[in-house]
């Protein structure tokens, strides 16, 4: 995503002391915290649109607690300090009752430790995949609708070995996401018989990574665990220019068309990537038929964002008020069995069942959401490849 070990010293930012949430007579307001600018800025808009679609559907089907559901967004720039500042705004100024977010793991931890913990605010992240979130000491307030990179690393290792890629060089962005992913990948890859010829961190925001690339040439198979809008693009472009690598691999943060900006698409044809996916079934089919402004059903983490917002709405309705503690307590009830199945978009049905005192169990666009003790979910990882200058999903990694 046990939650007993990790603490984060948020950079010296003056944050106001969390005040009690102001109860709303009708309706409810949630927050969205995420990197709308910075290294994932091309990935963030479809994620926000996924969450907003859930909010729109709630309001089109009768609203929440006798009023409307609103969502206030705040940019945290994929950064811990930015996360703390954004959370301070939405929690202590806008008085949101729950938060969708963050997106990058560092901003989620910064946001929660900055104002979420003291305010008793439940967070549901659609995209924070670093294993560090699993061990966050959070009083059972932080959840995620995407699987941990502990799984993605294993599945990437299995995929590469199945393709006959028997040695790799890894470079990862030096943050919770990059290191956690790299550690999981390296451990699983070596356990499967592969050789990690090099495993080197790189810092975000540099213009030149040629020195780092020079230390990675022990393998021609380069794995880049970074962000499409930032170091991921620069490292990939300079790796192509070097001519030292023949196979390129990326994780979920690399899956965006901006990754290929300034790069000859033919040079990276067949680039392998992985990200969280969704199982087949009625819930996913229903979700994939949705339309909305700025909404792309299969965009990276859009299904998980939809699920995060829809789940929070269900928890608010189940709690019967905008009391933050009540919402946090209700979240597991609406997400897990036993209960009558609620599928994406079935807000009116859910409201009716909740009003009748019937247990519900939401089955999401990204799959089942049976949270474990740490607030993590199982999930599936899919393979993608660059074909003709775009990412194409190839299927579930078995």
From TrEMBL:
Residues 1-23 form the signal peptide. SUPFAM superfamilies: Periplasmic binding protein-like I (SSF53822). It comes from the Bacteria. GO terms for biological process: amino acid transport. Residues 29-335 form the Leucine-binding protein domain. InterPro entries: BCAA_transport, Leu-bd, Leu_Ile_Val-bd, Peripla_BP_I. Keywords: Amino-acid transport, Signal, Transport. Belongs to the leucine-binding protein family. PANTHER family: LEUCINE-SPECIFIC-BINDING PROTEIN (PTHR30483), PERIPLASMIC BINDING PROTEIN OF ABC TRANSPORTER FOR NATURAL AMINO ACIDS (PTHR30483:SF6). This is ABC transporter substrate-binding protein.
